[in-house]
């Protein structure tokens, strides 16, 4: 009997989710239940599972339970995920590691994992970590059933540089409280990865997955199948690393100063690949550090990808109400409640938001970008979500619709960053109270004039046909008209 999970592995990176901690003797494999971290290399969960298998003298198998719906994910993200997994399958086959996809309704993922553990006589099951409620329900189900079989379930945090349960033992107030904790531990965890060893045993790799069939099994009652799949992000690790190379060559030098300007587009664009674990952020952090240049850009990139991203995981891990107003801080809940009946100058329906039919050309342009390209510039995301708060009849509605639109259209949606990003904008997550005003209460306010001071709004709006026209139809003015009016007023004042 081995006490868990295998001797060379950093024990702080995993947790035991079963009572049973002993790897089962006389079994036929170790099963990696792949969830969030959909890659072979640079994946601590894969390495842990491979390590246990090696010590036990059994092969490693990988299972991906392909859930037929997930929150508000549309066919856009499912297609991205499936195509990324196609590359995972190829990589695993080159290592003689069997990969199995089991299609399962969202409520039956747990059963699919337990069935696979039984069928393949697993010595242990290893999974990665995603702090969302549905995934926790699956883990509870699997843990309970595996205990009955005397098979341990190990969970490895393979998504964060510093494992979420190590970085902090509580919900953090914000980046300023998590940052010093991460900084203290960061160099201990930011290490190069070992390569995944091949299975040396004879393994039946079975036929290749029929991905068309898998995608065809999506639950059309829950998954919007009408959303298109633009080619803005090519799925898979190879494409991700090519895009990252381009970022390092062309954009990183400007990242520290210009990442908040939507017209300059110097963000990395890595979020969809990171969201589906097609690349681990640790790989990106290691690679930018190796460049040995653009130190301000590197520091800013690591601040976003390590501190901010890991703060999102911290929030969802320690707060199961991450997607509800009850998950907000007391001051924010009170203030939003107090202002929930304030008169709104504009209100829109969900459909009007979705179709970018507001009076605001900038908001419409951002929404059109989201719908057409599956992404929205990071700075505009804040403005976009805050305006949903301003133009809906209640904060709860704003939170729901903001999350719905983000998760349906954004390639990187349905993840802790999305819940925290919308939560920050609508209910002050990780923020502080600001000057009280109508509708927003003490939630930080953003407006069109503030954007105007940061970048040329018309330069952005004109890239998205329909944005200005829709604004005019809804009784608004375009950025050009506002500018003309502004300079006329200025001239009159100076006369
Ligand atoms: C309303 C709203 C919704 C958001 N929804 C999502 C979402 O669904 N998925 C998502 O990954 N991010 C989300 N964010 C956070 C942030 O806007 C995006 O991560 C970022 O814009 C992605 O672009 P990029 O990969 O080019 O980022 P870069 O600026 O190149 O940053 C590198 C990586 O750091 C991480 N990161 C960057 N900014 C943040 C941040 N503020 N918080 C946490 N992590 C960050 C991401 O993993 C990103 O890929 C949201 C923010 C807001 C305000």
TrEMBL record:
Residues 482-495 have a biased composition (Basic residues). Its EC number is 4.1.99.3. PROSITE patterns: DNA_PHOTOLYASES_2_1, DNA_PHOTOLYASES_2_2, PHR_CRY_ALPHA_BETA. Its cofactor is FAD. Residues 28-164 form the Photolyase/cryptochrome alpha/beta domain. It comes from the Eukaryota. Belongs to the DNA photolyase class-2 family. This is Deoxyribodipyrimidine photo-lyase.
């Amino acid at each position: 009997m081995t006490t868990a999970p295998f001797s060379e592995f950093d024990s702080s990176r995993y947790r035991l989710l079963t009572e049973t901690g002993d790897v089962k003797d006389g079994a036929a494999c170790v099963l990696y239940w792949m969830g969030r971290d959909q890659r072979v290399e640079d994946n601590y969960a894969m390495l842990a599972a491979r390590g246990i298998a090696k010590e036990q003298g059994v092969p490693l198998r990988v299972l991906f339970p392909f859930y037929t719906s997930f929150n508000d994910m549309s066919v856009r993200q499912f297609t991205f995920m499936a195509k990324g997994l196609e590359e995972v399958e190829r990589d695993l086959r080159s290592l003689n590691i069997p990969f199995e996809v089991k299609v399962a309704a969202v409520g039956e993922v747990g059963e699919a994992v337990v069935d696979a553990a039984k069928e393949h006589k697993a010595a242990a099951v290893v999974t990665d970590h995603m702090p969302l409620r549905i995934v926790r329900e699956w883990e509870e189900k699997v843990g309970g059933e595996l205990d009955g079989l005397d098979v341990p379930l190990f969970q490895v945090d393979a998504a964060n540089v510093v494992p979420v349960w190590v970085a902090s033992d509580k919900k953090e107030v914000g980046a300023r409280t998590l940052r010093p904790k991460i900084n203290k531990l960061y160099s201990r965890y930011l290490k190069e990865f070992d390569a995944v060893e091949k299975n040396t045993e004879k393994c039946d790799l079975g036929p290749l997955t029929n991905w068309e069939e898998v995608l065809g099994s999506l639950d059309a009652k829950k998954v919007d199948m009408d959303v298109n799949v633009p080619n803005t992000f090519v799925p898979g690790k190879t494409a991700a690393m090519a895009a990252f190379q381009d970022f390092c060559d062309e954009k990183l030098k400007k990242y520290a100063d210009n990442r908040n300007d939507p017209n300059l587009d110097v963000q990395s664009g890595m979020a969809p690949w990171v969201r589906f674990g097609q690349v681990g952020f640790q790989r990106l952090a290691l690679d930018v550090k190796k460049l040995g240049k653009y130190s301000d850009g590197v520091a800013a990139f690591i601040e976003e990808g390590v501190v901010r991203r890991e703060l999102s995981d911290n929030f969802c891990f320690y707060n199961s109400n991450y997607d509800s107003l009850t998950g907000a801080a007391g001051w924010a809940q009170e203030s939003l409640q107090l202002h929930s009946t304030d008169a709104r100058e504009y209100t829109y329906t969900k459909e009007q938001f979705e179709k970018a039919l507001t009076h605001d050309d900038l908001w419409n342009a951002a929404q059109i970008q989201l719908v057409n390209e599956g992404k929205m510039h990071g700075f505009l995301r804040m403005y976009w979500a805050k305006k949903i708060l301003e133009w809906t009849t209640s904060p709860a509605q704003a939170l729901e619709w903001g999350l719905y639109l983000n998760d349906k259209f954004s390639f990187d949606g349905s993840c802790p960053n999305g819940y925290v990003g919308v939560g920050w904008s609508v209910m002050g997550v990780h923020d502080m109270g600001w000057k009280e005003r109508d509708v927003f209460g003490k939630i930080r306010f953003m407006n069109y004039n503030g954007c105007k001071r940061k970048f040329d709004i018309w330069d952005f709006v004109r890239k998205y046909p329909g944005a200005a026209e829709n604004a005019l139809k809804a009784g608004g003015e375009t950025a050009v008209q506002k500018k003309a009016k502004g300079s006329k007023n200025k001239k009159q004042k100076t006369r």
